[in-house]
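User:
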Amino acid sequence: MGTIAKGYVYRSLDSGGNWDIISPGGDWVEHVRDIEAVSKSEVYAATDAGLLKWTGSGDVWTQLKGLPSNNTVSIALDKSVDPAVIYVGTWGAGVFYSRDGGETWLPFSHNIGNKFVYKLAMSSNKPYTLYAGTNFSGIWTRKLSLPGSPWLPLLLLDDQ
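Assistant: Predicted structure:
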């Protein structure tokens, strides 16, 4: 769980019965916007200071380099196939992905452009689909099992 004010991050190993702080606290970041956990000791946090990774050692977080913007907003992990595949939504630079746990990054914004991507979500059923919630541009989807598939707007129809 993360907080916006001063970016505190807590974890619970007993379904919320007890909580431990795993962030340095203070002024390490201003906003923690999204958190994804690979395991009890591997956590990613999208913050206003970039994409950060915690690997279970106290309150030490590492900033992952290579993204064109430090203003990360959302994260989706491909836990169904390979948790080393990370998708990151940014504030005004679009979506990026890494196949190696955040060592290198590639753009993933074909057809969606440099949108403000507020939320990413991954489907749990095949064909795997990545959903991107954007500011002022609706929700976009992209089938991940089809190489080179385009982003498509998700149409929400009225049941009239």
